[in-house]
TrEMBL record:
UniProt keywords, alphabetically: Pyridoxal phosphate, Transferase
Cofactors (names): pyridoxal 5'-phosphate
PANTHER family named in the record: HOMOCYSTEINE/CYSTEINE SYNTHASE, HOMOCYSTEINE_CYSTEINE SYNTHASE
The species this protein was found in: Caballeronia zhejiangensis
Family designation: Belongs to the trans-sulfuration enzymes family.
Modified-residue entries (N6-(pyridoxal phosphate)lysine), positions: 207
Gene Ontology MF, one: O-acetylhomoserine aminocarboxypropyltransferase activity
Residue ranges of the region described as Disordered: 1-25
SUPFAM superfamilies from the UniProt entry: PLP-dependent transferases
The protein's name in its UniProt record: Cystathionine gamma-synthase
GO biological process, one term: cysteine biosynthetic process from serine
């Protein structure tokens, strides 16, 4: 069959891969062990000579493998590995592909727990330099002889900064560096990091892809663009595989298998169901987020609004050029930070909760919660003010959302 469109590919993926009994969905395989008629086959699975086989569920099940195929297809990659959470996927990349003495350059604007993980990497002897990656020049200036990898997020949470994705891609290609892009906020429905030369793509499946706040999961996808045979940190055991496969193979063995943050079949099933409506949901959420951002920008009680779909956003042009929509993530500041608690409490629809990419609109004050532990210095360097609110736009009817803000913001007049 010809290469299918984005949503067609997801909703028919399981059936086209040969669902049992004509099932249109891959069943939830709960077996931990997988047995074989002939022991040669068991040996083949262990040695990797029998492709597509399963032996022990920590390394994957037919249900997680079906989800991995879907993510690979969504990201137009050559392979994916699913993990129990997005953080597990990110941790597996850093711990299996970097070694003590290596240097990582990261955007300064990253997810709070990723930022915290960098602290752990430093204790293990991995150097991390964080730069303002909205300029590729800042990344270039940070590169040293021991730099191995560059890490960015497509749209940073909560400030919505967008790195110079193309410029950094060109730089990494020129310097032979692995380019890791966290695509969680945009998701492959809005953007494929392969288009800017990413080597590995991370998605927290928990957010946009699962989309209903009902399952945790993460995925790492290899775009096939990076030449792992030239990467110094691949163990000899994995050098025997074709060069394109070496990176992901090492992440699967040393990361998923040895560290054990495996996705369960039940969660994989739930994520796969969410993925079926991914494109529909992000289109609606992006539309709602843009309408809310435009409404808030005009409201006298509101200071700055951070949303890449607004012409006032510093990276508006990049968002227009690279993304199919500006996503559900939007942040804004009340002019009167002292009214923040009352305003948020007055909101009836948005759920006062952390979390992102849900069908329901979620709202959270940033400084006293998700970036509390980071401390005032990190908050300042990331542009997070005390009055900043982060919103994840849901799929509700926009008139209801705006009416709700209208009444709540009266308290901040
Ligand atoms: C939530 C998030 C993660 C971590 O994902 P979990 O599934 O919650 O572990 C990583 N990166 C970004 C950008 C996120 O928003």
């Amino acid at each position: 069959m010809n290469k299918q469109g984005f949503t067609t590919g997801i909703v028919h993926g399981d059936r086209n891969a040969g669902g049992e009994h004509g099932g249109v969905r891959q069943p939830i395989h709960t077996s931990v062990q997988y047995g074989f008629e002939r022991v040669e086959d068991l040996i083949g699975v262990f040695q990797g000579t029998k492709k597509g086989g399963f032996n022990y569920a920590r390394q994957g099940t037919p249900t997680t493998a079906a989800l991995e195929r879907k993510i690979t297809s969504l990201e137009d990659g050559i392979g994916s590995i699913c993990f129990s959470t997005g953080m597990a996927g990110i941790t597996a990349i850093f711990l299996t592909l970097l070694r003590a003495g290596d240097h990582l350059v990261s955007s300064r604007y990253v997810f709070g727990n990723t930022n915290s993980l960098f602290g752990t990497l430093r204790t293990l002897g991995i150097e991390v330099t964080m730069v303002d990656a909205t300029s590729a020049e800042n990344v270039a200036n940070a590169i040293k002889p021991n730099t191995r990898m560059v890490f960015v997020e497509t749209i940073a949470n909560p400030g919505t900064q967008i790195p110079d994705l193309e410029g950094i891609g060109a730089l990494c290609r020129e310097r032979g560096l692995a380019y890791v892009v966290d695509n969680t906020i945009t998701s492959p429905a809005l953007f494929r990091p392969k288009a800017v030369g990413a080597s590995l793509v991370v998605n927290s499946l928990t957010k946009t892809i699962a989309g209903h706040g009902a399952a945790l999961g993460g995925a790492v996808t290899d775009t096939g663009l990076f030449d792992w045979s030239a990467y110094p940190n691949i163990a000899d055991d994995y050098r025997k595989s074709p060069s394109k496969e070496q990176g992901l193979l090492q992440v699967r063995k040393k990361g998923l298998r040895d560290m054990g943050a495996s996705l369960s079949s039940e969660q994989a099933h739930s994520i796969a169901m969410g993925a079926e409506t991914l494109a529909l949901r992000v289109a609606k959420c992006s539309e709602n987020a843009l309408a809310l951002a435009q409404y808030l920008e005009k409201h006298e009680a509101i200071g700055r609004v951070f949303y890449p779909g607004l012409k006032s956003h510093p990276q508006y042009e990049i968002a227009q050029a690279l993304f199919k929509g500006a996503s559900w993530l939007l942040s804004f500041e009340l002019r009167r930070a002292d009214r923040m608690i009352d305003v948020v409490n007055a909101l009836q629809l948005p759920v006062k909760a952390t979390g992102l990419g849900d069908t329901r609109t979620l709202i959270i004050p940033v400084a006293p919660t998700i970036f509390f532990e980071a401390g005032p210095e990190v908050r300042k360097s990331m542009g997070i003010s005390d009055g900043m609110l982060r919103l994840s736009a849901g799929i509700e009817d926009i008139d209801d959302l705006i009416a709700d803000f209208e009444q709540a913001l009266e308290l901040a007049a």
